[in-house]
Amino acid sequence: MSDKKRRIQQDTQADRMVRQRRATIKARVGCIVHFWVDERDRAHHNQSGLVGVVTKVSPLGSFVVFTPHGKICTSRKQPIYHQWGDYELLAYATLTPSMEKLKREVEEGSFEETKAGKITISQAHTKEYGTMVFGRSQCRCLNGKCGKGCGCHKNGRLCGSKCTCHGSCR
Fold first, then answer.
1. Of 76, 91, 160, whose CA–CA distance to 126 is shortest?
2. How far apart, in Å, do the first and last CA atoms of the chain sit?
3. Residue 153 and residue 57: Cα distance in Å, rounded?
4. Triad 116, 159, 89: Cα angle to 5°
5. Alpha-carbon Rg of the chain, whole angstroms?
6. Which of 39, 47, 76, 119 has a 20 to 30 A CA-CA distance from 130?
7. Is the pTM of this model over 0.85?
8. How far is CA 86 from the centre of its chain?
């Protein structure tokens, strides 16, 4: 089989897979989601996750979440797109008044993302539950990549959402 035919077959297979993935996307704009917080970004005694409202869904199914405290972002203030395995949809949830207001504004289309603040997962967890994340450091490695001089690795800790690498150097 020629390279051209193989390339065409691969492209059609990729299109089928993308269409199938889009058909299984469950999160929609305005949905309430509970997403898990990694142990690096939460207090040891509080294993609760965070609850937020989906405000934007990408064509491949990842989405941006807003909590009453702000948009969940990296330490560089770039939005985090949560993947399909990181959350649980909440069909029936008891919401706080601020969360109900946020959900209503998103559903009506009157929500303005630019006015809402940006916050890391660790900061949102601290504000939501009032517990500090002790014993965690924050590295400032260049270009978001950790090397030999990483402060977290020197202290024997894993990088978290406060770090410039956003914990992607695992």
1. 160
2. 41
3. 34
4. 50
5. 19
6. 76
7. no
8. 8
d(CA 92, CA 155): 43
Is the model's pLDDT at 113 over the cut of 60? Answer: yes
* Cα distance between residue 68 and residue 134, in whole Å: 23
Cα–Cα nearest to 103, from 152, 153, 66: 66
Spatial contact of 82 and 52, defined as CB atoms under 8 Å apart: no
Cα distance between residue 103 and residue 58, in whole Å: 19
CA dist 143 → 89, 139, 156 (Å): 34, 12, 21
Residue with the two structure tokens 């649980």: 88
**Mean pLDDT in the chain?**
76
Task: At 94, list the tokens.
Answer: 């008891």
pLDDT exceeds 60 at position 116: yes
* pLDDT 10s digits, 47-102: 677 888 888 888 777 788 888 888 888 766 777 777 766 677 787 778 888 888 88
